[in-house]
Amino acid sequence: GVRFANMPRPATPTAQQQGPAMTATTHTATCHCGAVAVEATLDLAQPTYRCNCSICRRTRFWPAVALPGGFRIARGQSDLTRYTFGSHKNHHYFCRHCGVRVFGHGTDTPMGEMYGVNVGCIDGLTDEDLARLAVVRMDGLHDQWQQPPTYGEHL
What we know:
Layout: E1 25-30, E2 37-42, E3 48-51, H1 54-59, E4 63-66, E5 71-75, E6 80-83, E7 90-95, E8 103-106, E9 114-118, H2 127-132, E10 135-138
Parallel strand pairs: 3-10
Antiparallel strand pairs: 1-2, 2-5, 4-9, 6-7, 7-8, 8-9
């Protein structure tokens, strides 16, 4: 599942870093039908992740990392369906109405507890913004989290 293993810890912006692309800001991410909304503090200058593991490949999950103090469910807690498998240490949340996976919650990662927020669900990001995001590809299919998969262009 989404293990987010061997990922760099999100950097804390310094006072010298300028502009919205270089600092952590609070973003709202929503599902397709709008029943679920989360607020997350994300630094979108840090890498986002694409993985070829069984759940990420099937759901096309593309997360940016939020730490626990920078994440909250703003709306729709009762509209979420939780799915776990394997070690059950990582939780995959879907809107029970439209099926969109807005976020996942990892408890077994090198950075400790974290949330993966689906960047495709972040309100207000343009196609140009999405195209500029740094993407790290991981070979979760073979539990080689520290390296990219042999074939990853489709991720």
